[in-house]
Amino acid sequence: MDVPSTLLSQPALQAAMLAAAGALLFWLKDVPRLLIGWGKRFLVSTLTVDSRDDFLFPALVEYMDQHPGLRGVNQFTARSVRRGTEYQSLAEDLRNGQPPRAYLSPGEGVHILRVDGRWLWLRRELQVTQSVFEKVSLSTLGRSPVFLERFLQAAIEARAARETDTLSVYIPNPFHGGDWMRARLGSRRPLASVVLKAGQGEALLADLERFFNSRERYAKLGIPWRRGYLLFGPPGTGKTSLVTALASELRLNVCTLSLASPVVTDEKIHTLLASVPQRSLLLIEDVDAFFRERDAAHSQVRLSFSGFLNALDGVATQEGTVLFMTTNHIERLDPALIRAGRIDERVELGYADEDQLRRLYLKFHDDPVAAAEFARISSHARHSPAAVQGELMKRFGAGEAQLLAPR
C-alpha cells in the first residue's frame, strides 16, 4: 500500500495543502512591493515639499523654472508671479503695463531627469484631503541626503536673494481687517542716497543696530523690547525716505499704517499692531493730521485718540517692534502721544544747511569748488532737500546748475 498516495487522497489534507499554497501565493504577491519598498528605504533618498509651506514650495517651484536641468521636460505646470514693484494690486500692475510672469515647472506625474550630474526622479501630484494641495517629491540614488539638501538650499537662497533685493511694503488688509498684506515691492535704497545733516542717518542706523542686538539686555532689565522714533520737520526734508533707507540697510520690511484707513478702528488696531511681521519698521506718517486736541480731525478717522494710545502701549508686548512716526508740525501733537516710553528718540529734519547743499550738488556734478560756492550762497535761504534736489535735476538737465533764489 502506497502510504503517501493514500494521505494525499485525503480531502482534509488536500484542503490544508491548498490553503497553504494559497497563503504562500498571497504572501509572494507582496514580495515585489516589499522589495521595492526595501530598495526605496535603503537605496534611494527622497525629499518632499508641499504647497502648505508658504516659503519652501514657491521657492522650489521658482528654482525649477530657472534650473536648466529641469527644463528638459515637455509637460509643465505654470504659476504666475507678479512683477510689479510700485502698485498695490494685479489690476494696477496690468493697467501700468506690468503683467505677471509665468513660472514653468515640471507638471503632474513622474519625470526622470539628469540634474547636476545626478539622476533625479521628480514626482508632482495634487492631493485632496480636507484641503487641496500640491506635493513635489525629489528622489535620487544613494542613502545620503546631501545632494537633495544642497538642491533645496540653492532654491531657498535664490528665493531669499530675490526677496532681499527688494523692499517689501505692507498695508492693513482691506478684506480682513486685523492683518497685513504686501502692497508692493520697492527698490532698496542706500542710506547715503538720503542727504541729511552730517551724521544724522548714521546715528539712527547705529541706534537701530544696537536695539536689534540688545534683546537679552532688555529682558534682564525687565523693559519691553521695543523702540519708538519721531521724525519731525517741514515737508520735503526726507522723513519717509530716511525710514525707507534704514529699512533697506537693515534688510527690514516697512509696514505703513494710515490712521484714516477704514479698517483701523479701536477694535482692529490692537490686532494690527500685535501682528506686525517680524523684522519690520512700523511707519505712521503725518500723525498730526488725524487728531485735533484728541478729537478725530475728519470723518474718515474711525479711531479714537484713547484707542490709539492704548494700542501703542499694547504694542510694547510685541517683541522687537520699531515704530516711526512722522509729522510736519510737532507743536500740534498731544504730549501724551510722544511721551517717554512711547517715543524714545526725537529727530528733527530741517531745511538744508550748507553742508547738505554741497553734498546735494555733488550728487549731480562732481565739481567740489562749484559745489562749495553753490552751498555758500544758497544757504542764506530756507530750502528743503527735496526742493534743492528738484531744482538741481531741472537745471542740470538744462546744462547748468544755478543758485537757488531766497524765499
Structure overview:
It is found in: Membrane. Strand 4 (109-115) and strand 5 (118-128) form a beta hairpin. The strands form 4 sheets. Strands 8-7-10-11-14-9-15 form a 7-stranded mixed beta sheet, sandwiched between helices. A 4-stranded antiparallel beta sheet has the order 1-6-5-4. Strands 2-3 form a two-stranded antiparallel ribbon. It has 3 domains: 43-164, no CATH class; 168-348, 3-Layer(aba) Sandwich (Rossmann fold), CATH 3.40.50.300; 354-397, no CATH class. It is an alpha/beta fold and 407 residues long. The model has no long low-confidence stretch (mean pLDDT 81). Helix content is 38%, strand content 23%.
Give the terminus-to-terminus CA distance: 133 Å
- Poorly predicted ranges (pLDDT <50, ≥5 residues)? none
Number of helices: 14
Radius of gyration: 32 Å
Relevant terms:
407 residues; alpha/beta; Rossmann fold; 7-stranded mixed sheet; 15 strands; elongated; ATP hydrolysis activity; AAA family ATPase; ATP binding; ATP-binding; BCS1_N
Itemize the secondary structure elements and their pairings.
Blueprint: H1 3-8, H2 11-28, H3 31-43, E1 44-50, H4 56-66, E2 76-81, H5 90-95, E3 101-106, E4 109-115, E5 118-128, E6 132-141, H6 146-164, E7 166-172, E8 180-187, H7 200-212, H8 215-221, E9 226-232, H9 239-249, E10 253-256, H10 269-274, E11 280-284, E12 291-292, E13 295-296, H11 305-314, E14 321-327, E15 345-348, H12 354-364, H13 368-378, H14 385-397
Parallel strand pairs: 7-10, 9-14, 9-15, 10-11, 11-14
Antiparallel strand pairs: 1-6, 2-3, 4-5, 5-6, 7-8, 12-13
Helix pairs in contact: 4-6, 12-13, 12-14
